[in-house]
Specification:
Blueprint: H1 3-10, E1 16-22, E2 30-35, H2 37-42, H3 46-64, E3 76-79, H4 98-105, H5 109-114, E4 119-121
Parallel strand pairs: 2-3, 3-4
Antiparallel strand pairs: 1-2
Length: 124
C-alpha cells in the first residue's frame, strides 16, 4: 500500500490540513488527520462537531470507494496537535515524518480501533 495517493485523496476535504496513513501492524490501514484551525475551532461546538464528523465520515466512504480492498481505510483519527518542523512532526517542506507520527500516536492506535467508529477524536 502506498500512502501518498491515499493522503492526497484525504487532503481534498476542505477541512483537512494534513494527514498520515498508517497501520502497518493492523488488518486495515487508517489515517490521522490534522484539521484546519477553523475546523478545530468549529469542533468545539457539539452540533458543529457532529456535522464535521458526518462530513469526514462521508469523505472516508468516498475515498474508500476509490481504493483496492487492502488499501481501504478502517477509520480516521482526528488529532488536536499541530504538526510543525519545530516539534519534528513534519519537515521544513511540510512532509509528514511517519516515524515521528508513530512515536507520538502509536500507543493510541489500538484504542482508536476499538472504538469501531469511522471517525474518532484523539484526546488532546
Amino acid at each position: 500500500m502506498a500512502p501518498a495517493p491515499i493522503e492526497e485523496l484525504l487532503g481534498q476535504h476542505p477541512d483537512v490540513e494534513a494527514c498520515s496513513v498508517t497501520g502497518a501492524h493492523f488488518a486495515q490501514p487508517f489515517a490521522l488527520l490534522l484539521l484546519s484551525a477553523a475546523a478545530m475551532a468549529r469542533s468545539q461546538d457539539a452540533s458543529e462537531r457532529q456535522a464535521l464528523q458526518a462530513s469526514l465520515a462521508a469523505h472516508l466512504q468516498s475515498v474508500n470507494a476509490q481504493l483496492e480492498a487492502h488499501e481501504k481505510l478502517d477509520f480516521l483519527a482526528v488529532v488536536a496537535d499541530t504538526w510543525t518542523p519545530e516539534n519534528g512532526m513534519v519537515t521544513p517542506t511540510l512532509k509528514v515524518k511517519r516515524a515521528r507520527i508513530e512515536e507520538v500516536y502509536g500507543a493510541q492506535y489500538a484504542l482508536w480501533l476499538g472504538q469501531k467508529q469511522p471517525v474518532v477524536w484523539a484526546k488532546a
